[in-house]
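Quick note —
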Amino acid sequence: MPEESAAMITQGMPSKRKQELLSGELGSEKVDAIIRHMARQAASAHVVHVEKDIKERFEQCCKVLNVKDQQVKDKWQQIIIDNYSAKRRVYHTLKHIYDMFKLFDQYKHALENSNLVAVAILFHDLVYEGRNREDEEKSAQELRRFGAEVGMPSADIDEVARWIELTATHQVESNECKDCKFFMDFDMAVLGLPWLQYREYFLNVKKEYQGLKSGGWLFSLFWAFGRPKAMGKLLQVEHIYATPAFRERYEARARDNLAKEMNIWWWTKTLW
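Predicted structure written out below.
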């Protein structure tokens, strides 16, 4: 067993069990069972951590908005947690907005109104039924409901709702405000991750979307033709990312990932 892997697996393990595992005394089947069990424990712990983080982010947004009504806060916090935790979701989950917030933390210093960006992150995929534009419009409507109930200025509500609706295409004008551009890039950053992480992303999106639809092999055929078309449109734009920072960090790899994925679905189409 490699030293780094062994260190990760045995972290927090009782010393006697750790010695047995590293020495090989337990046998391969027992070791495999222990590793699987610990992996499940780690995954479960991460889910708890992510949910706790999102609740804290929401609470901070409410604090900045000076929301006093605890019942209103509790209601909307639960709506956010429940919607992003729905069983049919695979990619558009709490983990997705958690990942966006990690980027938010890195670029918060560059934002003009960071709380509006945080609210946009929380609400941008609140509704996800696999219907482009309609999902974004419904999510924006939910944001408007929340904003009205907590007393957000109408101009701020309109601005955040507009950003959420723009995620239907993620295409923004060059004169768009900086906060909107960073919000879009936080959402699109997954395209520029290393290939294995990107592959996990698009397979999760496919699984999630397929769970919302029906038709079996008809869905697979639709996906094999439709997904490359969408990816091709992205590759045709001058810039995938709206900010110079994300273009430098992610653009080249994102284009490489998109081209690889298109090739995968192109080969799939040849089988039909």
